[in-house]
Amino acid sequence: MTRYRMLAIDLDDTLLNSRLQISPRTKEAIRRARDAGVHVTLATGRMYRSALPYARELELNLPLITYQGALIKEVATEEVLLHRPLPLELAREAVALASSQGHHVNVYLDDNLYVGKLTPEAEKYRKISGVPIYPVGDLVKLLDKRGVAPTKVLVVGEETAMDELGEQMLDRFGKTLHICKSKPHFLELSHPEATKGHALDTLARRWDLTRDQVIAVGDSHNDLEMIEYAGLGVVMGNACPDVKAKADYITQSNEQDGVAEVITKFIFGD
């Protein structure tokens, strides 16, 4: 029997191919792992409502790690097991800074997505995430009016601009927020402990597992904490070199069913 009892899989550019689909081979491998008693979950920067259709497609009825680890929510019961939102005042300041530079900003409240206006970036994000978007004008005023800490803030823009903004955010919030890029043009801001690694540890403890019993599979900088946490940290073949450098194992790309390869090789030894 395999020593691995938990498998956490990132969605975009990992489990999903370029058409945002899960291949039949990968579905079958996940079903096989699940039937063998392995806890298979998703670990994504996406909203819970955006990840849920994929969980249902795979017949996963256990907790999902979403919003980079800021929200863990049970599929079967919809129970929230963990929620670490951004501190409201810091979120307000970060949104104001990004907005003042003309960047597109997403604010996530109660698993709903709010934007200032419907920009091309918003429309592209809607197509990827499959969720409705609510334009509200001034996002800082929204936060003031609602008085609720957002689960996450995402800034979308050109790669170099996001690098520059990321440096500014690190200078201002580096000790009080978790700041990383999930894609070259996505800058993510979350609670300092809202990482996939922290969330993975939470679920492992819930199931009385050690980190040596956990496999984590991802492709991007926002996956690094869980890749480093897991007993087997796997990086996709399509990942960038600095993420690959952190891998225990580099699998095939998301177009070549890399997740299926991991399951077959390490869980079943085939």
Give a topology summary.
Blueprint: E1 6-9, H1 11-15, H2 24-35, E2 39-42, H3 48-57, E3 63-66, E4 71-74, E5 80-83, H4 88-100, E6 104-109, E7 112-115, H5 120-129, E8 133-135, H6 139-146, E9 152-156, H7 159-173, E10 178-183, E11 186-190, H8 196-206, E12 214-218, H9 224-229, E13 232-235, H10 241-244, E14 249-250, H11 258-267
Parallel strand pairs: 1-2, 1-12, 7-8, 12-13, 13-14
Antiparallel strand pairs: 3-4, 4-5, 6-7, 6-9, 9-11, 10-11
Helix pairs in contact: 2-11, 4-6
Structure overview:
This protein is an alpha/beta fold and 270 residues long. The chain is 39% helix and 22% strand. The protein has helices at 11-15, 24-35, 48-57, 88-100, 120-129, 139-146, 159-173, 196-206, 224-229, 241-244, 258-267; strands at 6-9, 39-42, 63-66, 71-74, 80-83, 104-109, 112-115, 133-135, 152-156, 178-183, 186-190, 214-218, 232-235, 249-250. Strands 8-7-6-9-11-10 form a six-stranded mixed β-sheet, sandwiched between helices.
Features:
270 residues; alpha/beta; six-stranded mixed β-sheet; five-stranded parallel β-sheet; 11 helices; globular
Give a quick summary of the entry:
The chain is an alpha/beta fold and 270 residues long. Helix content is 39%, strand content 22%. It has helices spanning 11-15, 24-35, 48-57, 88-100, 120-129, 139-146, 159-173, 196-206, 224-229, 241-244, 258-267; strands at 6-9, 39-42, 63-66, 71-74, 80-83, 104-109, 112-115, 133-135, 152-156, 178-183, 186-190, 214-218, 232-235, 249-250.
